[in-house]
Design a protein that fits this description.
Layout: H1 2-13, H2 19-70, E1 113-115, E2 124-127, E3 143-144
Antiparallel strand pairs: 1-2, 2-3
């Protein structure tokens, strides 16, 4: 009979964790989160900038196809919408050159900027970054085709 009592006591004591054990585990998790979170956030901001660069290259290809078909780049009035819907005066337009209008939005939810004629090339295509202001560093830096 004593053997049963000892066995039950041992089971009763091993059924859960003590408060100290839980606090130690939570402390370790908090320490790991504090060390890892800045790295993850850095990767995410870099990923948005890389996505913007890839999207700009894709839009550039569409603009060049527009040029090959129509003999001119989209005007400032037509803008990038001329890649999705046929402009009124574009007789030889064979688009759409982009499937969705969503492709004209940068990773921060703002439309890509288009200037024709451009100050750096035949046309300027750019995003103003997270802060939507010229210049900046990191995720707020401008991403452009020049």
């Amino acid at each position: 009979m004593t053997r049963k009592l000892k066995s039950r006591r041992w089971q009763a004591n091993s059924e859960g964790f003590t408060l100290v054990e839980l606090l130690v585990v939570l402390g370790i998790i908090a320490l790991l989160a504090a060390l890892v979170a800045p790295q993850v956030i850095g990767y995410l901001s870099g990923a948005r900038t890389d996505t913007a660069k890839a999207q700009i290259r894709n839009i550039e290809s569409a603009v060049e196809l527009f040029y090959l078909d129509t003999g001119a780049y989209p005007t400032a009035d037509q803008g990038l919408d001329g890649l999705v819907e046929a402009p009124d005066n574009a007789v030889t337009w064979r688009g759409p050159y982009l499937k969705k209008r969503d492709g004209l939005m940068d990773p921060w939810g703002k439309p890509y900027q288009y200037r024709f004629p451009g100050g750096h090339s035949a046309y300027d295509l750019f995003s103003l970054g997270r802060d939507n202001k010229e210049g900046g560093t990191g995720e707020a830096a401008d991403v452009a085709n020049w």
